Every structure is written in C-alpha cells, then in structure tokens.
Amino acid sequence: MHYHPPAPTRKRRNWLLPVLVLAPLLMVCLMMAAFGVFAYRQTLLPPLLVAGYSPDPSAVKPYSLSTEQEEFIIQNGYPDSFQILFYEDIQPDGKKINIRQETWGYHQQGFETTFKNGEVYTQRPADFSELAGLAPTAYRPEFFSRDIALDGILAVTGQSTYLIEELEPELLPEGELVVIKGLSFGFSAGRLRYLETIPVLAQ
Fold first, then answer.
1. Which of 41, 82, 146, 160 is the most buried (most CB within 10 A)?
2. How many CB atoms lie within 10 A of CB 50?
C-alpha cells in the first residue's frame, strides 16, 4: 500500500507531546497528560541516572507486525520516527479491547500513518522540516510489545544507560517515565503505556 501525500501539509506536533488521533478514552487522555508534561511537572523524586546496567536478554518480547504493516513497509520502508500507545477501548456492550495505536512518521515523504491493532486508521500529510539534519530512528516498531518490561526494552535496543523518573500519583498511579538514547517510554503499574522515538543528531 503506497501512500501519495496530498499537496497541503501541516506542522507536525511536538515530538515530546504525543497527541491522540481521537480521544475516546478518558484514561488515554490522562496518560497523555501525565507523560506529556515531563518538562513542566514536579515529581516525587529527582530523576535517577543508571549506567552500566546489564539487562536480561530473555525479557525481550517482540511484536508481530500485521500483514498490512509488512506490506506498508515494503512500499514505504521503515518509519523515520514512531509513537506507540497502549490502552483499553470499552465497547458499547462493556467489553474491553486492548488497543495498540501506532503513528509512523516518514520525514522525507512528508506524511504520517496511524495504525490501530495493525490496521491503517488514518493517513495525513505532515511537515517534518524542523527535524532536518536529525537522523531517523534506528529502532523498529516490532521491537516493542504491550508486555515488554524495562529489561526487555534495554536488551532489544542495546542500551545500558537510562534515566528514570517517577510521576506524581495525581498524574498517573505508579507511573514512571524512562529515557534512553533516541527513545522515551512510560509505564503505569509496571505495564508499558507509551513509547516514542526521540530524534538524535546524524553522525
């Protein structure tokens, strides 16, 4: 499925402030607020820098891309940046469905595509000119599954240094924000809720 972006473009949102395509769940909005105010909030404890950590490689839990996503990559390549949100969608009958919402950004082509549980949900033009001179991410969306823990993320990304900070319980109960080279991600009660690539200087 090859995407041909239309002529008009819009300014891309701040990559540190993830924005939902829709806001069907109050819980998701709370998560976004909790993780999005990283630069402005007061936290329980100062950030903790951990260096030289040896993660457990058995904790790696990759995600299987859908057929639609695999075909999309064949046509367009891997995304230059991406964001993943994990949340529950409550159906009219009260049933809860786990949602994996991914937004893939293609900087040179000037568009981004959002997938919900592996199916294309939206496609839109986007202006990534502010990221000119920055390297595309070396990470892949399938590195990260809903059940992956901190050790798994560090092992699959090959990182041994990370910065971790606890969120105030008013923002998100048992919330933690973690930053490594090129990636930020958040946990709530030990479960991965949010993950987003961070642009780094091209070498």
1. 82
2. 13
Q: How many domains does one find in the chain?
A: 1
Structure token pair of residue 85:
């949100």
The verdict on residue 4 lying in a domain is no
Residue 14 falls inside a structural domain: no
Q: Are 51 and 63 in contact (CB under 8 A)?
A: no
Nearest to 105 by CA among 134, 131, 79, 144: 79
pLDDT recorded at residue 45: 60
Compute φ and ψ for 19, nearest 5 degrees.
-125, 135
Residue 16, in any domain of the structure = no
114 assigned to some structural domain: yes
Q: In terms of residue numbers, what domain contains 52?
A: 26-201
Interval 113-151: pLDDT, tens:
999 999 999 999 999 999 988 999 999 999 999 999 999
pLDDT in tens, 56-105: 999 999 999 999 999 999 999 999 999 999 999 998 898 999 999 999 99
Q: Which tokens sit at 86?
A: 């994990």
Match 């109050």 to its residue by tokens. Answer: 26
